[in-house]
Design a protein that fits this description.
Largest sheet: 4 strands, antiparallel
Oligomer: single chain
CATH topology: Adenine-n6-DNA-methyltransferase TaqI, Chain A, domain 2
CATH class: Alpha Beta
Number of strands: 9
Helix content: under 10%
CATH superfamily: DNA methylase specificity domains
Low-confidence stretches: 100-104
Distance between the termini: 11 Å
Strand content: 35-45%
Length: 104
């Protein structure tokens, strides 16, 4: 069952209700991978602590939000494409055509 919420603080002049839903309806979740077999290059590699080094291949050519698997989950990172992430950093990309008009 979907639940509608009226936020206590909203943008001035905006009074619509918010609807809770699954995050998976608007973003795709991707896992990082090991980079050690890659050659040195210009593509940044990110881990939970941020930038690590640069390699010659990318995991994503789309900007994303990086979320740590453990320890740094409360410190998301904006990742500018192209980039590579290690296996401790998930990254979220927007779905191609999310339905942004949510109504109660």
């Amino acid at each position: 069952m979907k639940q509608c919420l009226i936020p206590k603080v909203i943008k001035k002049g905006h009074s619509s209700a918010w609807e809770t839903d699954q995050l998976s309806k608007i973003v795709d979740v991707h896992s990082g991978r090991d980079y050690k077999s890659l050659k040195s290059g210009s593509i940044p590699v990110y881990g939970t602590g941020g930038y690590m080094l640069s390699v010659d291949d990318s995991l994503s050519d789309v900007d994303a939000i990086g979320i740590g698997r453990k320890g740094t989950i409360d410190n998301p990172q904006f990742l500018i494409a192209p980039f590579w992430t290690v296996d401790t950093l998930f990254f979220l990309t927007a779905k191609k055509d999310p339905n942004c008009q949510i109504k109660c």
